[in-house]
Write a structure and sequence with these properties.
Layout (H helix, E strand, L loop, with lengths): L1 H20 L8 H40 L7
């Protein structure tokens, strides 16, 4: 589940970047530069959050698999 959420956030950050930040202007005014930097920063945070969630989900899945695979049966 976390892996899917991570991929969703990564794609969402990319789409946010394309829709709101877009391609930087050639000769922007200070206001345009500020707005571009603001939206680019938000998109970057969303993308990195998606990467972090994806990696955490992947690591949790691997640990879960290893624990289940090599768990010793309880003898009573």
């Amino acid at each position: 589940m976390l892996i899917a959420v991570g991929v969703f956030l990564l794609v969402s950050g990319f789409l946010y970047d394309v829709m709101f930040a877009g391609i930087p202007y050639q000769d922007p005014t200070p206001e345009m530069s500020t707005r571009y930097a603001h939206h680019a920063h938000i998109a970057s945070v969303i993308c990195w959050l998606g990467v972090a969630v994806f990696l955490f989900g992947s690591l949790a899945s691997i640990v879960r698999f290893v624990v289940r695979r090599f768990r010793r049966p309880l003898v009573t």
